[in-house]
Structures are given as structure tokens and as C-alpha cells.
Amino acid sequence: MNVRTDDAPLDLQPATAFRADNRDDLDPAVRQTLERRAARKRLGAYQPISVEAVEQRIVAFLERECPGAKVMNVGRLGGGASKEQFGFEITAGHPMAGRYVLRMEPRQSISESSRRLEFEVIAALRAAVPAPEPVWLDEEGAGFGQPAAIFRFIGGVTKPSGSQGGVTGLGTVIGERLRPIIKPQFLEHLAAIHGYDWRAGPIASLDAPDADPRQAALRQVNWWSRVWREDCTQSLPIVALAERWMRANLPAAREIVLVHGDYRTGNYLFDDETGRITAILDWELGHLGDYHEDLAWTLQRLFGTVEDGRQLAGGLFEREELIADYTARTGRVVDRAALHFYEVFSAYKCIVITLATGIKAVRDHHNHQEVVLSWLAPIAHIFAAELGDLLSRNPAP
């Protein structure tokens, strides 16, 4: 793999028609997902599916896709703030025997995404990082009523036994025993994701934002500002200010990489005894973009912990430690202005997810996790305070 170690931005041929105020420049898969989402929201309240109904649909689906499979132990899984998740088993004696996880869209997810894209990204990356094996896809929801995908089950936990930690991994304390074991793996897997050669092994659902060095940033701003406009139930001036600032400060990408989109503690499984990471989860926001985006997301303070007076990203790294270790591991320059931009973007995105989409999904009864989404809504104001702080200062040189 060729890694850039200089300070020059990515050498792309600038598109003469590039405009930072072009709101229509979206990744095609994102555009399709948002259009499907808009159509589904007009269908009225969503009734979460019962375990019994899910079992019937799994049986019917496997009769077509996996003849002879017998299903048992169907049950709803915990977590899944953005997707409904169910576990089940195919009994012994069948070639596909084993445990599986069904991930299915509710009427409205707090992070709307494409099941096909998630399926294809995981299939491509499994050789590089631990991830669930994608097995079956119901892209249009013909079998399950909503778009769905089925993966092999992988064991592990998202936080140590007895550890502090909130919903979706917020505030998870990794602890002194596991931190030195998990830290190098966390960094190694992030480097492997960013090092995936998407040109040699293209992922059909991904479109490269390489028409202009600033296009990667623009597409992300366009994605989440559109979601804000469609889902906002109350005005928040700082959100408008942040969008205007981002459009005026789009960074030029140094390199287009595969971005996970939600890379943080809470989105990987590990063995509680050995500390070995067994799976990287939640790939639905994967896209081609700027590696600074994943770093900035990991550095969001609410995703970390404060221990012994130290702010730890994901309960693992001090800020400068993560930046230095990432550079040492990958050879990539961490541009402070680009990192600052994506920290602004990350706080903005979190406000959109929690205060706009989350609240609207609860109000309209479009999600199966109304209690969780209601609990998350006030957190938006913490991100708003963070956003105000970020916008008030310049990035470090």
C-alpha cells in the first residue's frame, strides 16, 4: 500500500463546476436511501414486529434461501438503537447450522442507511478486520417487510463486566487491565479500514468523491444538512451557523479512504477475559471519504471518558496520543485544520441524529426504541455546547 507522508492535499483534478453551496451533490447510495426514507415516513406509525412474526418470516425466508434449515431460539437482541435486531439459530445437521443475527430497518432509523451497502462493505473488509460474516440480504424488504440483512453471530461484549457505560457505548470505562490490550487493536483495525484498496477491490455501492478535493467534505455536509431540514422539529440557530461555517471551510482531502463512519468504543465486540476484539460493528454509515472524519468522530468527548483527570477518546487514548499513534501506524499526516472541520461536523451530525431524527421518530412513532431515543434527545444540547466551543476557536497549528 502506498501511503502519503507529505503535507500536500490530494492531487485531484478540480471540477470547474464545484460549488460549496451545491446541496445536490450526494453519494448515489445516500441519495437513494434518503428518497426511500422519505417515502416510508408517509406510511404512518410503525408497529414493532413481534418475535413470533419475525420467526415466521425467518422460516419463510430460509425456505427459499436455505432449503432444509430448521430455526430455533428466535429472540429480540438488546441494543440496536438504529436497527431492529433478532438472534436465531439454524439447528445442527444442516450445512448452515449456527447462530445468526437479523438486522432490520424500523420505519425510521436515527441513522438511515442502505442494507446493501452495509452488506457489501462488511464482505469486502472481513479479510482485513474482524467483522460479522454477511450471509443473506433482503434489500427491498420483500421477505421481512423492511430492508434487512442476516449475519453470522459473533460472541463478545461491548464493555467490561461491571464497567460503567451508558446507552450505545457512551461513557464506557475500559479500565486499566484491558486498555493496553485493546488500544493497539483499535488503532490497527482503524488503519486497516483506511488502508483498504478500494480501487483494486471496488465496492459496488460506494461512489468515490474524487471530482474535487473538497467533494468528500461537501457530500457529508449535504447528507446531514438534508436530514436536518427534513426532520427538524425545533429551530437551533447554532446548527444553521455550523452549516454555514462548514460550507465556507470545506477541507481538501489528502487521500480518499474507506471511512467507517461510526468508529468508537461501543461499536466493537471484545472477549471480556482476553481483551481480543472479535468484531467491528455498525458499518451502515461506511463511505469513501476523508480519514480525518473517523479520527474526529472517535475524539468526540461524549464518546469518551474522564479518568484521573485525563480525557480519553473511547476510554482508550488521550487526544495527542491518538493523533501521534495514528500517524506512526499509517504514515498519514493529521492536518489540524481538517481535523477541526470534522470535529465540528461530528458534533453537528450528532445533533441531527439525536435532536432532529430521534425526536421526530418518537413523535411520529416510527421507531422501535422510543424510550432510548427520548433518553438520547437531551444529549443533543451537550453536543450543541461542544459545537459552540469548536466554532469559537481556531484549530491548533
Automatic annotation (TrEMBL):
Aminoglycoside phosphotransferase domain mapped to chain residues: 76-318
InterPro entries listed in its UniProt record: ACAD10_11_N (IPR041726), AGP_Transferase (IPR051678), Aminoglycoside_PTrfase (IPR002575), Kinase-like_dom_sf (IPR011009)
Any Pfam family matching the protein: APH
Protein's recorded name: Aminoglycoside phosphotransferase domain-containing protein
Lineage, broadest ranks: Bacteria, Pseudomonadati, Pseudomonadota, Alphaproteobacteria, Sphingomonadales
